[in-house]
Amino acid sequence: MFVVVQVDRVTRMLQRVAVVGAGAAGLCAARHVLARPGFAPPVVFELSGNVGGTWCYEERVGSYPNGRPVLSSMYRDLRTNLPKEVMMFPDFPFEPQLSSFLPHQEVQRYLERYCDNFGIRPHIRFNSAVENITPVTMTTDSEGRKLTWEVTSADSSGCLRTEAFDAVFICSGHYSDPHIPQIPGIQNFKGKVLHSHSYRCPEPFSGQTVVVLGAKASGLDISIELVKTGAKVILCHRYAPLAVPLPAGIQESSSVVAVDENGSIRLQDGSQCRADVLMFCTGYNFSYPFLDSARLGLEIQDHVVSPLYRYILPPAFPSLFFIGICKIICPFPNFNCQVQFALAVLDGSVTLPPREQMEEEVQREQQTKLGRGVQQNHLLKMDQDQWEYCDALADAAGFPPLPPVVRSLYEEVWQQRRVHPENYRGLNYRMVSATQWERIN
Ligand SMILES: Cc1cc2nc3c(=O)[nH]c(=O)nc-3n(C[C@H](O)[C@H](O)[C@H](O)COP(=O)(O)OP(=O)(O)OC[C@H]3O[C@@H](n4cnc5c(N)ncnc54)[C@H](O)[C@@H]3O)c2cc1C
Ligand SMILES: *[C@@H]1O[C@H](CO)[C@@H](O)[C@H](O)[C@H]1NC(C)=O
Ligand SMILES: *[C@@H]1O[C@H](CO)[C@@H](O)[C@H](O)[C@H]1NC(C)=O
Hints:
Bound molecules: flavin-adenine dinucleotide, 2-acetamido-2-deoxy-beta-D-glucopyranose
CATH topology of the largest domain: FAD/NAD(P)-binding domain
Pfam families: FMO-like
CATH class of the largest domain: Alpha Beta
Number of strands: 22
InterPro entries: FAD/NAD-bd_sf, Flavin_mOase, Flavin_mOase-like, FMO-like
GO molecular function: flavin adenine dinucleotide binding; N,N-dimethylaniline monooxygenase activity; NADP binding
Enzyme class: oxidoreductase
Organism: Cyprinodon variegatus (Sheepshead minnow)
């Protein structure tokens, strides 16, 4: 009898965690929940039938026969823009025989191995879409007033089910909901209009003139794919001329301001051009249709979610965690730090400041960034700040920081990409120590 009571008490005290999404971030959250004492195995909700999120290539664009939208933005010939040596989760290397820059299939295989290695799969509910997440205050005998989360999900037949959790990790990604800027007169354009989210391969564009809007990672990579397959590319963007040597066939231009009635595209510098295709490589919106942002004290805009303490949690609800929301980061290592910090908050090994203080801190940091000339839209871009950020999380939560060699190689590759945008992926690297890497070709 005594033993039974003990067991019951222990299981009751284990924290129940819901994870939304089984992409890289959700798998990472599940892996650490499973490893940590004090937590019940997580419930991972995954809309699709697979792990891997955006790395799970889907040839189809638009939506599935069941009406759900295709979320993956992966294109057929994509290779990683980070070498596997820094891209990996710090506790799980890619296979040693693989080259540094990998086709997307290898990343998908890696995430499947990660999932199976850490025994995550039995805890994933596939084909299960989270539709609503609501905080509910409950009164219990033993714990007094306590916040729980009601998570409502729909299975493949549309059956709804609501369950209660102590904490929720939002790992639903933010490269699925295309952001398309308003362009006056766009309805006059006679050709094809698409967003990079729906781009899969270059062949259909052979012999055509394609105006690519946006020259960030995907704008540049897709432009290079297109010219190699015989398209003519006009790469339009708002920024100073790119400091990269562009392959012949890509003409760099100022941004698109309007489409005239006769279908001509008008550019910022006053010139005009005609094209068969307008391809928006203009990024993605944040989108959390299952959250009531006002109720959570959050403002969710196209490119900003705020306030989030340490880019992870809303100060008013410190048991809701957004993993992987920052941009211009080394994604997997960043997720790994955020998840461990969040779990340390939950198990009490990190004590958060009071709500007001967290809000002030977020405010202060935003003001500092804006003061440095950062645009409102770019507040979640980390770039140089990412290393100090990860170190601070590690320090606060008492887990090992990223070895300095990760930053060093990341920065090396960033340089190489700038100088050799067409062929930096042919380079291969090897980690030598916690501070040193070497090039092996
Ligand atoms: C084209 C492209 C190229 C990239 N290249 C690189 C690269 O070279 N190196 C690199 O490190 N990173 C790269 N990235 C960044 C990439 O986004 C991250 O590596 C990582 O995959 C993000 O993982 P995630 O788990 O946050 O999101 P996702 O991979 O988007 O996973 C989110 C998951 O949540 C599920 N989901 C969403 N909504 C719901 C819901 N309501 N209910 C249940 N499940 C839901 C989705 O089905 C999906 O499986 C690239 C991204 C893109 C789009
Ligand atoms: C998302 O992007 C579109 C443009 O593509 C915009 O009109 C819309 O308002 C955006 N914001 C949200 C939060 O959906
Ligand atoms: C389209 O119209 C604009 C004025 O609106 C004109 O300057 C341009 O020459 C026209 N282009 C073509 C190809 O007719």
